[in-house]
Amino acid sequence: MDTFYRVLVFIHIISAILGMGPGFILTTVVKSGKNMTELRHSYRIRHKLHIFVMVGGVLLLVTGLGMGLMHHYLFQMGWYVTSLILYLIALAIGPLVLSPRSKPVKALLASHTGEEIPEEYWRLSKVLFRYEHLENVIFLIIITLMILKPF
Ligand code: HEM
Q: How remote is the CA of residue 126 from the centroid of ligand 1, in Å?
């Protein structure tokens, strides 16, 4: 039982590194494109990095809940319940907030002709990146709660 719990902690921490690590640079990676070709390429890289975030994200939740099912007292810990709620909020922000704001950016990348990045892109991406930063802040809070377990 104890060994299985430790295996879960191990998978949890590896998932945090491989899943959340790339997550923090998803915005940075698309900020370096200077023309449409570079921009499209950076979005392709971002798409691949996002796969790590999705796999890591699912594993984080599954192992985190698994640890709670093994040690029920965790559900009485403030840091655990707060993290779980924040995590579910962050998860919901994906389809509810990020997806509708990234669709017009992707559509523009697909339809725009010429090499110069249009003004419209900066306007649309600014809104999208603002919400991505919010996601990052939520994940930073969760990581802090995980490490310090303050309450
Ligand atoms: C952004 C998402 C998350 C990240 C990056 C993350 C990261 C971490 C890290 C680095 C640790 C090791 C800290 C330590 O013990 O010193 C940890 C521990 C833990 N995490 Fe998470 N976590 C996340 C989400 C969750 C969620 C959603 C749950 C609950 C469903 C959870 C449950 C736990 C538990 C129970 C431990 C304690 C393991 C132990 O030491 O016994 N985590 N987490």
A: 31
Averaged over 37-63, what is the pLDDT?
97
The answer on pLDDT for 1 being more than 80 is no
- Compute and round to an integer the Cα radius of gyration of the chain: 18
Structural domain total, the chain = 1
pTM: 0.92
Tokens 């709660």 found at: 145
d(CA 66, CA 32): 39
Q: Please identify, by atom number, the ligand 1 atom nearest to the C-alpha of residue 86.
A: 27
End-to-end CA distance of the chain: 26
d(CA 118, CA 147): 43
Which of 124, 97, 140 shows the shortest CA–CA distance to 43?
124
pLDDT digits (tens, 9 = 90+) for 124-138: 999 999 999 999 999
State which residues form the domain around 111: 2-148
